Amino acid sequence: MFGALKPQPADKILKLMQAFREDPRGDKIDLGVGVYRNAEGVTPVMRAVKEAEKQLWELETTKAYTGLVGDPGYQQAMADLVIADTVDRDRVAAAHTPGGTGAIRQSLELIRMAAPKATVWLSAPTWPNHPSILKYLKMPMAEYRYFDKTSCTVDFEGMMADLEKVKPGDVVLLHGCCHNPTGANLRGPEWEQVADLLLEKDAIPFVDIAYQGFGDGLRDDAAGVRLLASRMPEMLIAASCSKNFGIYRERTGIVLAIAPDAKTRDVTQGNLAYLNRQNFSFPPDHGARLVTMILTNEALRREWKDELEKVRRGMLELRMQLAEALRDMTGSDRFGFIADHRGMFSMLGATPEQVEKMRADSGIYMVGDSRINIAGLNSNTVPKLAEAMVKAGV
């Protein structure tokens, strides 16, 4: 049996991480891995998470399963965080999933069950797991233009032109904030135009919001998803707690499905429970329990928000430092987009050859499409990256 298996292509980022580990240079810089790290290169456990874990250790009396779709308190807390009061809750179905990736997978499986012929539209570029899962599930997919590689900004005109081709019942996958891999985001009026088009086309928005709080703050980062929730009769949302709570290894995500009415919501909820049962039965509870405790305890929530805000502002400061260093070295403002981007990532507009030159000459590791993780920098390494970019002719 196993002899019939075919080798699978190596994950590009994991391959890059391996090459970085094997590089003997002491001044090498890893800008490839998609995990938040502080100035010391550590992914810290947030103080509020530590405190919640201490309380949970004292209070928890059982390790029995929760429900198939997780704990109702977690569902409520996450719906409050992501969509607030923009839609009646009797229209919202929810399911706890193992991480944001699990939420995407369950959402796509739900789409396949409900509308197997629907095309799922992805931004070009997008997070590589989006097309990978779609391909594995053998679901129809298409791309819409999103990123202008010359200006390193959103190609909104191209995006809207491509989405004119969307058919009724198609699904359009959008990044809620902090677009991965580009860092370039839609603005408020653009979200309005997208909503208008989706309503006109009778298409379904599917929002992947994995970085809420990393861009312009918890409320502003959710503005696009909340706008859509307030206007669309149907919608899917995949949210992750990995980044904004720093609980990557706890695998804590959620699917929120907005239905047109309470009756349809109940059927949708049953199908989400069915999918959880088929794929992993009961979701892991530890991370979700911590998130629920933090979001529903005033003191823990305040401490979490304060620390998250420091993380956000730290990344913005690094963006401004890099843009300024490049302006000083080049005498040009053409890298100003780095300060305008939001979240952990930016796409620099470098060619694969330039990316390889920066790795070979300066020990700077980034994905071949020139996506960098801003959180991989600190005030000491920003000048080195700027210098390497200039030397490589970016």
**What is the multimeric organization of the chains shown?**
single chain
| Full CATH superfamily name of the largest domain | Type I PLP-dependent aspartate aminotransferase-like (Major domain)
**Domain tally:** 2
CATH topology of the largest domain: Aspartate Aminotransferase, domain 2
Gyration radius (Cα, Å) is 21 Å
Residues in β-strands, percent: 5-15%
Structural class: alpha/beta
Order of helices and strands: HEHHEHEHEEEHEHEHHEEHHHHEHEEH
Q: Spans of 5+ residues with little confidence (pLDDT < 50)?
A: none
Return the CATH class of the largest domain: Alpha Beta
What composes the largest sheet? 7 strands, mixed
Assign the CATH architecture of the largest domain.
3-Layer(aba) Sandwich
Summarize the amount of helix as a percent range. 40-55%
Mean pLDDT across residues:
96
Number of strands: 13
Neighbour order of strands in the largest sheet: 2-10-9-8-7-3-4
Q: DSSP helix count? A: 15
Shape type: globular
Distance between the termini: 49 Å
